[in-house]
Amino acid sequence: MAKIRSLKVRKQVLDHFNHCCAACGCADRRALQIDHVLPQTMGGSDEFDNLQALCGVCNNIKGNVTTPRLAPMKPVWDCRKWEKPRQVWQASINGWRAEQRA
What we know:
The structure is a single chain. The protein is of the alpha+beta class. The protein has a single domain (7-101), classed as Orthogonal Bundle (DNA Binding (I), subunit A). The chain contains three helices and two strands. It has helices spanning 7-16, 56-62, 83-101, and strands at 32-36, 51-55. The chain has a two-stranded antiparallel sheet with strand order 1-2. The chain is flat. It starts with 6 loop residues before the first helix and ends with a helix.
């Protein structure tokens, strides 16, 4: 999980993403993390445009991969509804990883 030094930027990101995961809609605020679209290990910055809100599960699925910045979702409170978007997210990540290997 990224350490965003600026609490102001962290708040802006969470507000922009409706305090829910941009990949699955998980609205459990305790599970939310700030993710770098372009990972810090690849030169990604802490600028607002390089950050998105992901839950811990989706952030772990993403790993150290560059992805497009996701659009904000509406919060989903029923955790059974998180599974389908997470499966779609996993498939997208697998595709991006395959492209990077090629």
